[in-house]
Amino acid sequence: LIDDRSPIGVFDSGVGGLTVLRALRAALPERRFIYLGDTARLPYGTKSPESVARYSLQCAEALVARGIGCLVVACNTASASALGALRSRYAQIPVIGVIEPGAAAALAASRSGHVAVIGTEGTIGGGAYQRALLRLEPKVRVTSQACSLFVAMAEEGWVDGPIAEAVARRYLDPIFSAADTLDGAPYGGPYGDPDTLVLGCTHFPVLARAIRAVLPAGVTIVDSAASVAAVVAREAAMSSAAATPIGVAVPGSLRARGHVQWLATDGAQRFARVSAVFLGAALHADEIEIIDL
Ligand code: DGL
Q1: DSSP state string for 216-232
Q2: Residue 279: its pLDDT value, please?
Q3: Taking CA atoms, which of 111, 194, 246, 265 is between 20 and 30 Å from 63?
């Protein structure tokens, strides 16, 4: 259960997790959040699972030390490599990753049962989505592709236009080539292309327009942010119902600016600048506290 009075901790390797934070704030506008971007060690996607697990445990430790009541791992790479370790180390609070909710959303969206997943090398290479999808639906067909450059492009703010579309085409054309589509069969038919594309990296939703531009019509794009927010909101609602009496009033100072405390491990200026692309609103460098893990 999520303690009503405690903030929700959210972390990612950088600003990608802001796509999840945005959905969480929309679902739980009264909640306080602490967001940590491990910008000093970004990207996680090309590191070994052991390093990602070690970094993730350090991020979680910093957030738990600040009194969070729930941990959201807003990074697919960290969810793939560290969710089990995080859940056993912090058994006293709910620890919610992005892969299970993303897999469930993909299966809900797909009519054909052929799902494509894109993510970092770590997420795709480790097979985390394939396992999560197969656990939920043993008959699903999964095609996956690592799209490492998308992370750098998102962090650089190159989210649409000809460069973004050219890179998207290079990664996605082989998946949606229609090469094995039977004559007249719709996309995603038993031998056809996938009809659903999971953005299995929290950096990717800002590239959705460029991705959409190169996808065949009729392919549904699934981003796990909304499904993760729904899982957290459900936990929070159950916790509020169970709490007696309900919570303590949050002081006025903590209600300001959407109740988010910002932490990063490097580069407050850069974090502030790039986060604008993800949040749709400017953040000031002096609002971001730089911490050492
Ligand atoms: N945003 C992270 C994810 O969802 C990965 C970015 C990185 O490579 O650090 O996987």
Answers
A1: PTTPEEEEHHHHHHHHH
A2: 87
A3: 246
